[in-house]
């Protein structure tokens, strides 16, 4: 009897569950089909794609995949504004969100949206890239938010000019890097890319098109820079330029000791009159035949001694420097470089240098990209970890991480260099440690199938160890290109800036339509 009763109850529960799920599925289907038909009715110069959307569900990290409802290929800024305004007018009950996608070089789905609209920013070319070279001594270029930095380099070089601050890799978009910071070896001198922008044109989360700068709508301007795409879509940017060099003297030297390496880096970034134009560095752990590889593109100052230097099994620190050359100042510059190098304490037999064009120097990572693509090693998972570490704890961090946790750097570079906080604008949304000098530490490991220690889970486990070690040792780091899953973690990441961040969100994107892939806010939920 009780058996029959139990069976009947289970049958009822099962039927009810199926009915409920069918209702949800039906409601979602209705919701999607009404969203699709209302989006299809938008008067656009560009177009919306509903079928071929899978490319927008992937990114460079190759670990997260959210399939969007549609991809917008905008031709004009009004296309972007109409789409966002339409979604804003649908109110809090529509599930639609919007993700601007630059080149999709994010690591954890930051440019993706589940069932929302991805905006393919590279389609946007409202006007030709325009260089204003006559405005010397402060020339600038106006570019679309979806423009690649490599294209900006090519165009501005025609005028003998170039942006001042870069990223190591130039096949990234203006909107994508300005939403983070844009850091490279020039940042110690000029600040990150977000410190080198005069003006922006923004489409907010309500679909308004606003111009902003330090003088006009400055709250929006500051918020968007380093704002992880939360307050608006960057459709145009005015970027500061400087006279471009023709050639670059590119130098590498090695250290056996982190403290000596860091001391020299810190001296170089603080030096009055800045002796170099670019300062970076990287860690090398357990690599064989390193200097022989360098010989393919660099020349040793002391060939015999260099050939006797053994890198095998060691942890080494490479200081990488560049000095920009102009035709008429080469000899003077070479003499200056020699004098500055003589004040540093690297292993003397490891001085290598070369001269390359400015363009080849800036586009150097693309050479590696081509090589890795040809070996099928570019489109692999990239569980990267990017950190900003205060100067006061970098030595302890290096001891714990480079000395104990990282055992090999053959699956990707580990970049380490200091920058000056005084070159960062604290009004922007970008988050950095509080100290005057802090280091970028970029652990850029690829999960290469078949390679020892190449598994994604193993690399993620190691990344977690690095974060746990840093937490326990009180390193006080901040994540760059941050990724968190809870509100508490985001609150702690932003620290004193959290209140301002939330206020700006409720002002410029009150329904939380924009950049849902950052996982900071959820659509139409209040978090104050
Ligand atoms: P996406 O990944 O497409 O977008 C990034 C975020 O910005 C997303 O949230 C997106 O919604 C938002 N977004 C995109 N466009 C806009 C827009 N127009 N308006 C508003 N929001 C927008 N970074 C450095 O700072 N220094 C480096 O040296 C450096 N080197 C790199 C090297 C490689 C090989 C790679 C893959 C990345 C590197 N990065 C570096 C990281 C890079 O800055 C980020 O990946 C950044 O996200 C830019 O990529 P993207 O243009 O493809 O943007």
Automatic annotation (TrEMBL):
<dbReference type="GO" id="GO:0009690">
    <property type="term" value="P:cytokinin metabolic process"/>
</dbReference>
<dbReference type="InterPro" id="IPR050432">
    <property type="entry name" value="FAD-linked_Oxidoreductases_BP"/>
</dbReference>
<keyword id="KW-0274">FAD</keyword>
<dbReference type="Pfam" id="PF01565">
    <property type="entry name" value="FAD_binding_4"/>
</dbReference>
<comment type="similarity">
    <text>Belongs to the oxygen-dependent FAD-linked oxidoreductase family.</text>
</comment>
<keyword id="KW-0560">Oxidoreductase</keyword>
<dbReference type="GO" id="GO:0071949">
    <property type="term" value="F:FAD binding"/>
</dbReference>
<dbReference type="Pfam" id="PF09265">
    <property type="entry name" value="Cytokin-bind"/>
</dbReference>
<dbReference type="InterPro" id="IPR016166">
    <property type="entry name" value="FAD-bd_PCMH"/>
</dbReference>
<dbReference type="GO" id="GO:0019139">
    <property type="term" value="F:cytokinin dehydrogenase activity"/>
</dbReference>
<keyword id="KW-0285">Flavoprotein</keyword>
<protein>
    <recommendedName>
        <fullName>cytokinin dehydrogenase</fullName>
        <ecNumber>1.5.99.12</ecNumber>
    </recommendedName>
</protein>
<feature type="domain" description="FAD-binding PCMH-type">
    <location>
        <begin position="64"/>
        <end position="244"/>
    </location>
</feature>
<dbReference type="InterPro" id="IPR006094">
    <property type="entry name" value="Oxid_FAD_bind_N"/>
</dbReference>
<dbReference type="InterPro" id="IPR015345">
    <property type="entry name" value="Cytokinin_DH_FAD/cytokin-bd"/>
</dbReference>
<keyword id="KW-0732">Signal</keyword>
<keyword id="KW-0325">Glycoprotein</keyword>
